[in-house]
């Protein structure tokens, strides 16, 4: 769960400092583990998209007036409330169907990003930090199946 106060547009950083309960009803201060609390550098393209999202957020807030529940959420309903995780999943699965791609679980996006980073020879320690893993061994154990490909790419280079 990201808040606008967690996005530093000038430094292009997102701070991960809290989480949302599985049912989406409760904001939990802090993160699952000490290393889950982290800063993630954001690319210029994502910053541009976040700036667009913030403009939409401000317009929706003005349009709703007193009915808007301002929780400072980056992703929220038109009235400012936290998204129900089940609704987010329904939208995700609809996008997958419309894109005519093989179905995956929402959490698989995390694995895909990690796999792509490792396949591009991004240092596993950086991947570990981005994912918020407590130990690099967890990252390497989870994605060790990719290492032969990385070794082959390295030998070719």
General description of the model:
The chain is mostly helical and 157 residues long. The chain has a domain at 1-82: Intergrase catalytic core (hpI Integrase, Chain A), CATH 1.10.443.10. It has 6 helices and 5 strands, in the order βββββαααααα. Strand 3 (18-20) and strand 4 (27-29) form a beta hairpin. The mean pLDDT is 86.
Properties at a glance:
157 residues; mainly alpha; hpI Integrase, Chain A; two-stranded antiparallel ribbon; 46% helix; globular
CATH architecture of the domain at 1-82: Orthogonal Bundle
Shape: globular
- Report the count of strand segments: 5
Tally the helices: what do you get?
6
Low-confidence stretches: none
SSE string, helices as H and strands as E: EEEEEHHHHHH
Strand content: 5-15%
Helix content: 40-55%
> Strand order across the biggest sheet?
1-2-5
CATH topology of the domain at 1-82: hpI Integrase, Chain A
Whole-Å distance between the termini?
A: 40 Å
| Highest CATH level, the class of the domain at 1-82 | Mainly Alpha
């Amino acid at each position: 769960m990201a808040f606008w106060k967690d996005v530093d547009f000038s430094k292009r950083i997102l701070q991960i400092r809290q989480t949302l309960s599985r049912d989406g009803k409760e904001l939990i201060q802090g993160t699952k583990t000490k290393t889950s609390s982290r800063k993630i550098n954001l690319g210029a393209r994502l910053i541009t998209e976040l700036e667009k999202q913030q403009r939409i957020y401000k317009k929706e807030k003005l349009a709703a007036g007193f009915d808007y529940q301002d929780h400072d959420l980056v992703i929220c309903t038109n009235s400012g409330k936290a998204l129900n995780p089940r609704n987010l999943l329904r939208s995700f699965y609809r996008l997958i169907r419309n894109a005519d791609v093989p179905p995956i679980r929402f959490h698989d996006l995390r694995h895909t990003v990690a796999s792509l980073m490792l396949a591009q020879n991004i240092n596993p320690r950086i991947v570990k930090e981005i994912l918020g893993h407590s130990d690099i061994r967890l990252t390497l154990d989870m994605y060790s199946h990719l290492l032969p490909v990385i070794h082959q790419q390295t030998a070719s280079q």
